[in-house]
Specification:
Helices cover about 80% and strands about 0% of the residues. It is mainly α and about 400 residues long.
Length: about 400
């Protein structure tokens, strides 16, 4: 169902989304509250408490993406092969929950912190593709954009509440990071309980055993349309600056006090929350690839603003609005564009191939931007990435449109 001139109320929209998608959205929302509590304080913690330079932050952030990429494909193939997508996803959610306890033990050790981030990202890598496959298998093909938009909106509501929770815990405990980490673990455990109780693993009618991982990757890569989507995703992700750095740059340019830093992701999350469903429906009606590329145009504008002379509240609002628009136009839209191109037997593995390619590219971009900032300055790094993004968008239009 699409929203037209006779727009249905919010409850009617939710009724048009499969119950399993709503259950997965609830799990993602609770899990994202937990994850974003940590993410909201981690960049400033690395810079102020541990004294890391931008290159070191980039390496740790790249580890975040790289581990996710390496684990994701294996987890996806396991869920396709065993056809127990819920079990594989639950394993990932559980590992990430336990990693929150690891943050309590890591202290100020960069090595221990890296190991905890590795475990947390391994959990994310295991759960993402099986979760997205369950959404696809639970939804009619003509409503995939809407389903992913609703799911991502619920996920983003968690991303909105997480920084608020972190801000509240820090304020209540006098700036105790350990209190944030412990609260984050308790919330993550609740998400795991919700998954066990309310999410069902969609049944498939496949009788044959899925191929081995090497054969599966070759079969997935054999589709020209899917190859083009992968190529464009990698090209654009190589020049995407990590959220870590976007928020650090805003904090630096606005001279924001550390106590307010956890609130920066709220702007991005609020815009995402408002736009995820409308842009998902627009993608279903007008074309998913065009919406995906449009999101990167918004990101390019955000980089140019950050590298320019704008300051104050205008800079803050404009960058966060553009940043949130980028995520609303790309996150679920990318998966809804790729899903129909994949055979059911390889749906999870195919999505994981795409997500793995994207994560590896973002790992490279995070390290590269950190190196540019350390060697020159943040403005030079932003201009280099903005120029690369503009050229990549021009190339992407020729490849995929």
């Amino acid at each position: 169902m699409y929203i037209t001139a006779n727009r249905p109320p919010g409850r009617a929209l939710l009724r048009s989304v499969p119950a399993n998608v709503l259950a997965l959205g609830m799990v993602s929302m609770v899990t994202d509250i937990s994850a974003e509590m940590v993410t909201a304080v981690l960049p400033l913690y690395l810079v102020l408490a541990l004294g890391l330079n931008p290159l070191q932050v980039g390496v740790l952030d790249g580890l975040h993406f790289g581990v996710t990429a390496l684990v994701r494909l294996a987890g996806a193939h396991a869920s396709d092969r065993w056809r127990h997508r819920k079990l594989v996803a639950a394993s990932g959610y559980g590992i990430s929950a336990l990693a929150k306890l690891g943050l309590l033990l890591a202290g100020t050790s960069v090595g221990a912190l890296g190991a905890v981030i590795t475990a947390d990202r391994a959990g994310k890598g295991l759960r993402t593709a099986p979760r997205d496959a369950m959404i696809s298998l639970s939804t009619p093909p003509d409503r995939l954009g809407q389903a992913f938009g609703v799911h991502r909106a619920m996920d983003t509501l968690g991303a909105f509440l997480g920084p608020l929770a972190a801000f509240g815990v820090l304020a209540a405990t006098g700036g105790s990071y350990d209190a944030v980490f412990m609260t984050s673990f308790c919330v993550a455990a609740l998400g795991l309980v919700l998954l066990a109780l309310y999410v069902r693993d969609p049944r498939t009618t496949l009788a044959a055993e899925p191929p081995r991982i090497g054969t599966a990757v070759r079969a997935i890569a054999g589709d020209p349309a899917f190859r083009r989507i992968c190529a464009v995703t990698v090209l654009l992700s190589l020049v995407t600056v990590s959220d870590f750095f976007v928020y650090l740059l805003l904090q630096k340019q606005l001279a924001m006090t550390p106590g307010l830093f956890p609130l920066l992701p709220l702007g991005t999350a609020a815009v995402y929350l408002l736009l995820a469903v409308p842009l998902g429906r627009l993608a279903d009606r007008r074309g998913r690839v065009g919406v995906f590329l449009g999101g990167h145009v918004a990101l390019l504008a955000a980089y140019l603003l950050l590298a320019g002379a704008a300051t104050g509240i205008v800079l803050l609002i404009a960058v966060l609005v553009l940043h949130g628009t980028f995520y609303a136009a790309t996150d679920g839209v990318l998966m809804s564009a790729a899903g129909p191109l994949l055979p059911e037997a390889l749906l999870t593995s195919g999505m994981a191939v795409l997500q793995t390619a994207q994560a590896l590219a973002r790992m490279g971009s995070s390290v590269a931007f950190g190196a540019l900032w350390t060697a020159w300055d943040a403005r030079t790094g932003l201009l280099v990435m903005a120029g690369g993004l503009a050229l990549s968008l021009l190339a992407a239009r020729k490849v995929i449109l």
